[in-house]
Amino acid sequence: MKISKILMALLVAVVITSSNIVSSTMARYTDVYSGGDAALIAKWNLGARGEDDIDGEFYNKGFTFDLFNGQSIKPMDFGEKSFTFRGGGSDVAMTYDVKMNAADLMQLTTAETKATIATEAGQDVFAPFIFKITAEISDGATDTVPTVFSPYTGSSPYYGTGWFRPKDVTADEDGYFSIFSGTPNFSAGSNDEVTITVYWQWNTSYYINDTNIAAVTAPHVVPADPSTEIAGRYLPYYQDAYDEYYGPGGLLDRYNAAANAVEDYLAVHGSPNADGTWPPHDIAADTPCTLSDAEHFAQYHGLILAANEALTACQTSLLAAYDDYDTFAVNALQARESVKVLFRVSGEQVAPQ
Ligand SMILES: [Zn+2]
Predict the structure, then answer these.
(1) Radius of gyration of the chain (CA)
(2) 257 Cα: distance to centroid of ligand 1 (angstroms)
(3) Consecutive sets of 10 residues in the chain, 353 residues long: mean pLDDT of each?
């Protein structure tokens, strides 16, 4: 009895883009003030570039940002990607925003289709992705670096890790939310460049507690662990569960020992008859076994019970829970045509005082 390791790959298609570097606000604004100030339509040069775009090139209409590098994502994968944007020396001051859309990475179960996690039915599964976003501003900048948002308060177990789950963020009806708190801006003529780095992980330790199954309820609550330092074969949170299961003296060893004990007992004492008696037998050459039928059955049933309990411990282990969760998520995401995470950069002219 083995828990299969998750090898299925998930193709997370591309992550893209912003076609929406908004300059339409400029036109609207100009309409309002057209009687007064022709300078308003002078130079509007908000632009952005992805990490893989040509060095130094900035694009005003859209940029390519392939968060997952078009690769097949599998459980426990992680990575990072950057993009940069700038005001580009526009003649007017602007506020800007970056909105993220991770609506494809939300709940995968439905009211009709629930998951069974470590033998417990009726569970919800989310795409177990977490993200961390950082912002930097170019050397010698005149404006200040924008503040990255957090959906958490200090009391959340996720707050201090700097990572967030898309499910914890309040998004608009199209699934977009701002990655900043406050309203950052470029002053008029600013050539500052802001670089956003998006770190991502498939990390089920951030999701498994929500199932509230026996394997993760107190005192077994799983600490959310974003560490990507791999000392063994897996990320630390998974390695712990793996060792508990496969390690020396672990759940699998205990099950095998209990199953062997049943076999050993039958090898010495024979098997019970269908009529509820135990056939007479020798336990050594010319040495009849002195145990009664009742004693045989009591010992035999005790060993069977122990083996069943050891089996249940395997099936309800944290490792089984991770594997069930990840397998459900992989299958649900694979069934989709594409899975995207979107970023949209926008700027809006600040009204002159
Ligand atoms: Zn016997």
Answers:
(1) 30
(2) 20
(3) 34 33 34 36 70 78 65 85 86 85 92 96 96 96 96 90 95 94 93 93 96 95 94 93 96 95 94 90 91 95 94 95 94 81 81 60
